[in-house]
Design goal:
alpha+beta, Monooxygenase, Jelly Rolls, 2 domains, F-box protein PP2-B15 isoform X1, F-box_dom, PP2-like, F-box-like_dom_sf
Length: 353
């Protein structure tokens, strides 16, 4: 190991340089990096750094909050946005994903287009227990079930894959919902459509009851399901969220951040021509899905080369890279560490180190 006199300490770097480097990582890494030194700790709590992690339109978003929030720093604001907050008069919630730091939204039932929902003979609007929103809607009885939701990609994080979910519950009197699979789809502009089917049914704790129903209704169910075209689609099931609600995955889509497109999400069952009821709708949720290519805070081609930042700040590759490798080798810095190792090898091969 090199003598201490040879090791250039990170504390000698300008704070704005450290902030720039930390901004290429993630909030998780920043919190761990704050243990490295006093200078890094100061940079890790700076408003300049945490503003880079916040959505670019965060000021406009917090201006839409139903209840204003108080925060003393940008880091505190970032952490408060982990919890879903009501916006737009209580018709939506906004939050930041804890893992990816991407925008997440939930649209209330009032933000959805539900066929016949304005007719109290078919749908009943009422307050719901354990709901994020002031009210939801319960299906009384219809033969035409269609629920649509729309959002523009400009509201979402760029270069991010999203999953769309319908948040529902089943009343004790629910009927007719599992006679025929409902068709689900997610369409982005006119370019992409994800399709599938879902059978809306309760998961019985009494497996004997479920087996008896399956045997008695098998022939009728198979006849009805033959009417549903699911070519190229995926068969999905209701998932228990653990908070008293169930969710139906409608599909996935990619927000490229370049073109503003309208995303249409739909669940419909209109082919059975039978009565159905007892479906309770809370809203529609949009959350980011983690993909390996999306785990970096910035795409490689969209950020300045790490070496150019360091050259401008210090005039020496050795100054930063030796410090990073020796002092941050136990910290999760995938981007900086990879570039540091590459440049060290290049310059070592040229005899510059």
């Amino acid at each position: 190991m090199a003598d201490e006199s040879e090791i250039m300490k990170l504390d000698l770097l300008p704070e704005d340089c450290i902030v720039q480097l930390l901004s290429f990582t993630s909030p998780y890494d920043v919190c761990h990096a704050s243990l490295v030194s006093t200078m890094v700790r100061d940079a890790a709590i700076s408003d300049l750094l945490w503003e880079k992690f916040l959505p670019s339109d965060y000021r406009q978003i917090i201006s839409r909050l139903v209840l204003p929030i108080n925060f003393a720093s940008k880091k505190e604001l970032f952490l408060k946005l982990f919890s879903p907050l009501l916006i737009d008069g209580g018709r939506k919630t906004f939050s930041i994903d804890r893992i990816s730091s991407k925008k997440c939204y939930m649209l209330s039932a009032r933000e959805l287009s539900i066929a016949w929902s304005t007719n109290p003979l078919y749908w009943c609007w009422k307050p719901l227990l354990h709901s994020r929103f002031p009210e939801g809607v319960e299906l009384i009885m219809v033969c035409w079930l269609e629920i649509k939701g729309k959002i523009n990609t400009r509201m979402l994080s760029p270069r991010t894959t999203y999953g769309a979910y319908l948040i529902v519950n089943l009343a004790g009197r629910a009927f007719g919902l599992d006679s025929l699979p409902s068709e689900i789809s997610v369409k982005v502009g006119g370019d992409h459509e994800s399709k599938g089917i879902v059978l809306i049914r309760r998961n019985y704790t009494n497996s004997r009851k479920q087996e008896l129903e399956r045997v008695l209704m098998r022939h009728r169910a198979e006849t009805l399901r033959s009417r549903v075209d699911n070519r190229g689609g995926t068969e999905r099931a209701l998932c228990d969220r653990g908070d008293g609600w169930l969710e139906i995955e409608l599909g996935e889509f990619y927000s490229d951040g370049v073109n503003d497109k309208e995303v249409t999400m739909c669940l419909r069952e209109v082919k059975g021509e039978h009565l159905k009821g007892g479906l309770i709708v809370e809203g529609r949720r949009l959350k980011s899905l983690i993909r390996k290519r999306e785990t970096k805070c910035y795409e490689t081609e969209q950020r300045p080369p790490c070496c150019s930042i360091i050259t401008q700040a210090t005039g020496s590759f050795r100054f930063l890279y030796k410090s990073l490798i020796l002092e941050l080798r136990y910290i999760k810095f995938p981007i900086v560490r990879a570039e540091a190792a590459l440049l060290l090898n290049i310059h070592a091969g040229n005899g510059k180190f």
